[in-house]
């Protein structure tokens, strides 16, 4: 078979070569219908575009990068899909860039900016402790999405979308206390982690204080540093130690659903039941919190709304409609089978 | 503070500028210790390398791309980590590229080859139905990892690492039959999907035949096409319909653990128990299969070994030690709480 050219494709489609090129390169000036038709003909005829030309076009195209810390965290699954949809709807292309736990996301972003001529960046997950000077090296608009921020940041220096981790953690702890639980174990991040873990820990503490309950440091457990953070295995290992510590408690609040699942497993293995012997609560509202047995009481983050708002703010920044924005979404306390009143 | 230069960093480290540059650019000719020391000093002093120079170096560096279909599938989590470790150990850099369900991975790969001057490619997940002509457009070595292959492929045209999906599915079905189950519902991929779903379906069918059991088409259920495939939600929705169909069965074999979790939830909601009323078996050996309640009987794929072997074969191809290789790993039947004998 002779090699098919772009001219052949244009003829088959009854359109010009420019239109075919626009379809291939995801150019904004082509209708969705025409593009779909062209791509169908391309696919059916196994046409392979000339790549050098294509890359030239592409590198000049408009690209948004999403930099993600903790790509294996199921919390981000739905968000990634929304990002992709919203970015494509704006006729931009989308790059998903994984950032390692120990990697500097600003460094990665600066490099990507150059390589890909980015128009905007979303930082997703992890926590942020970069200086104003460092941030100012980013030359394109960016939004921090579901990232824990340390308080020394000037709100004018960046944009963000998230829930109020302090307040939502307070809400869950307050709920457990109102169910009669006074001895609530907390599974959280290590104390030198200035992240959502810290904010959720502070919310827990404040709720206990407001109810006049003492903080028992023996009930505050950090995730294991030698096990991947926010995993079922980490919650399981920590809870096994908690149970062995002989410290009394009636409830566990784990700052993620995955940790809560691991906690339940450790309780089952100790021959105890959830919630009859111990109430267990999570955070995030992952799918597994619904499908687990017992289903988990949790704080459900509005992930789709957070993702949509992130992109909306990013494009407002790109189009210079705003200089910065901070949006905080409320999350829902979802009461399910894993917690019970002991009053 | 005056801007720190690469010369300052070199002085602080007591090494030459070239060494600092090598540390930054992940060059092979530098010891791990020196590199770690240099990177520590760079981090402590908030030094930002000159990016243009750095990018030039980088684009000439040796890069492996991993193209993944179904990035949100927890099955790939462990594999991604192994890929990263092994590729870094070889002093190559690593790009993780997400491919959409409907995207043509060969197209994506061809584009990446040019942009990044790749040295090798791993295709992870999904299924492969590209022609020999299409495959031959890839100019660098590649390995298909845990990908279902249709039979019309010539083994000389590619390399692959996976389990034997047919055989492992047979193993699970055979086990269930030996526990006294004759009416085994199957939750699998749609029949026009020439993927692992098809292979696992064939294994199920063969096991029934070998035991002289009739195939009841009413017990074979495809995942819903309007719900993301291989999710808990899909298994849940299908099982609800299965239960409502009034078709008799004593066990469900779901071709992934996520589907099996959803199946359990649907059974619980119908007021039934696992395994007392229905046995439920999964496939993959995901973390959740251990942490779920009841823990799930499953086929555990040796994901770490598969990932390691994938990289080993890829580098053998790169170094022209081999022209192609196919490695099939055995998987383990792991019997847990979710299945029981009804003999």
Under CATH at level 1, the class of the largest domain in chain A stands as Alpha Beta
CATH homology-level superfamily of the largest domain in chain A: Response regulator
Main β-sheet of chain A, in a few words?
6 strands, parallel
Strand order of the largest sheet of chain A: 2-1-3-5-7-13
The Cα radius of gyration of chain A reads 24 Å
First-last Cα distance of chain A: 79 Å
- Overall 3D form of chain A: elongated
By CATH, the architecture of the largest domain in chain A is named 3-Layer(aba) Sandwich
Most extensive interface, chain pair and sizes:
A-B, 45 and 45 residues
- Quaternary class: homodimer
Contiguous runs where pLDDT drops below 50 for at least 5 residues of chain A: 51-60
Q: How much of the residues of chain A is beta strand, in percent?
A: 15-25%
Helix count from the secondary structure assignment of chain A: 13
The fold-level CATH name of the largest domain in chain A is: Rossmann fold
Number of domains of chain A: 3
Strand tally of chain A, please?
Answer: 14
Computed structural class of chain A: alpha/beta
The overall pLDDT of chain A, averaged over residues, is: 87
Helix and strand succession of chain A?
Answer: HHHHEHEHEEHEEEHEHEHEHEHEHEE
User: What level of helicity do the residues of chain A show?
Assistant: 40-55%
